[in-house]
Amino acid sequence: MLRSRHWTEDWRNGATGMSLWTAAEAKAATGGSVQGDWAVNGVSIDTRTIEAGDLFVALKDVRDGHEFVAMALEKGAGAALVSRIPEGVAQDAPLLIVDDVLKALEALGAAARARTQAKVIGITGSVGKTSTKEMLLAMLSAQGRTHASIASYNNHWGVPLTLARMPADTEYAIIEMGMNHPGEILPLTMLARPHAALITTVAAAHLEAFDNITGIALEKASIFDSLERGAPAVYNADVETSPILAAKTLDKRLHGIAFGEHGFDWKLKELSIQGDTTVVQAEFDDKPVLFKLATPGRHFAMNGLGALAIIQAIGADLAQAIVVLGRWTPYKGRGQREVIQLDPIEANVRLSLIDDSYNANPTSVAASLEVLAGAKTIDGVGRIGKGRRIAFLGDMKELGDDAVALHAGLAHLEATKTLDVIHCVGPLMRALYDLLPAHQRGDWTETAAEMCDGLSHKLDAGDVVLAKGSLSMKLGLVVDAIRKMGHPVTDM
């Protein structure tokens, strides 16, 4: 994947001789008490990935982070943010002691936001948040010192952590914001205080916590609540709830910017997929805009269109951004394409893998199936002699009372009907499996681990294979098992 040429989220301030936080700065930000005169170059919540010189934050989640403070210090952490001195930690250890660790992390994030002159971009959406963030990270990193959240650090601790990690002289910051329940985005956007914000799309996701998709749209639209009057508020004009998003921009007196096929600012005119490349003809301000992506998919094209709208709105170089966007490829587990060479000598004995195993809802699954349906297979290279389009689909979570119907509805998609074999994982996907015609029906298993049994007999050279499901369904196990069938080679 194309990464930042200047800064990524895990850039180390020590490279310039500057510290991210001194003990005095951290004390002033949090109101805590300090032991020792320390300075740190990063902020970490995980001892598995902690680096020397980091501030270890002892958050309480499944386990209490205080249990790992001693380990973090042994691994070279510069200090630890705690609410007490943990057992096994020296009484004079370098610590920042506060009443509440999460609130202290939020205070660090707020202080980091206050001290920077960066142009801050907020991103939310039911689908495409992380991909769009990564596009912007690539494009803006070519134009200045850029900071962004890693992976999907977009919740009540992910956003303050991302802000707390932001160097003071950042020029562009991209903050991803997610939600599972009503009322979660507003405090995140108030903390990040973006100068511009983007809603990628609104779709049926997290319906367990919302009455309907209108509630989801209202929640997503709250990202605009922290914007100053006249600030760019970019939103997808193609979703059925776009009037709700537009109304919010009017209510807050923002500069509403609509993108999509129905966009009145950035309009998608034509899209074509040529092998592994997506070519997009768009229009902005009645002027043509042509851009390419080094990956297939209408959904990626829409994400790219929204990202370019943000680029133009904040005054960055649009032409340079388009060049960089043409080299972007998806993040791991989010549509990343690979070639798995099955024979160590014969290069043509191979299959193609689309790893989209990180998340799933009806909209994103439909988009992935469309990509698979349009993928090119190879004939005459395997034991079967004909390349096939094969999907491994896992349950889509948090869909509420309509979950079974939404899974069954996948059977009626045009893309689904063109596929050769569909394997299903999980009790909800049984609803799709039971509707599949005999010639498409592969295997159904309760778990991804069970699906991995005999996997090599389900696949052959020349196939194109998609793995898609909610993260908890662990379709990544299927992806890893496919990789182990041969030698992964990046599909260029």
TrEMBL record:
Catalytic activity: D-alanyl-D-alanine + UDP-N-acetyl-alpha-D-muramoyl-L-alanyl-gamma-D-glutamyl-meso-2,6-diaminopimelate + ATP = UDP-N-acetyl-alpha-D-muramoyl-L-alanyl-gamma-D-glutamyl-meso-2,6-diaminopimeloyl-D-alanyl-D-alanine + ADP + phosphate + H(+)
GO BP, sorted A to Z: cell division; cell wall organization; peptidoglycan biosynthetic process; regulation of cell shape
Pathway: Cell wall biogenesis; peptidoglycan biosynthesis
Domain of life per record: Bacteria
Record's keyword annotation contains Cell wall biogenesis/degradation: yes
Ranges of residues in domain Mur ligase C-terminal: 351-470
EC number: 6.3.2.10
Record-annotated Mur ligase central domain positions: 123-310
Keyword Phosphoprotein: no
SUPFAM superfamilies: MurD-like peptide ligases, catalytic domain, MurD-like peptide ligases, peptide-binding domain, MurE/MurF N-terminal domain
MF terms (GO), sorted A to Z: ATP binding; UDP-N-acetylmuramoyl-tripeptide-D-alanyl-D-alanine ligase activity; UDP-N-acetylmuramoylalanyl-D-glutamyl-2,6-diaminopimelate-D-alanyl-D-alanine ligase activity
Residue span(s) of domain Mur ligase N-terminal catalytic: 40-110
Listed GO CC annotations: cytoplasm
Annotated binding of ATP, by residue: G125, S126, V127, G128, K129, T130, S131
Compartments (UniProt record): Cytoplasm
Its biological purpose: Involved in cell wall formation. Catalyzes the final step in the synthesis of UDP-N-acetylmuramoyl-pentapeptide, the precursor of murein.
Name the record gives this protein: UDP-N-acetylmuramoyl-tripeptide--D-alanyl-D-alanine ligase
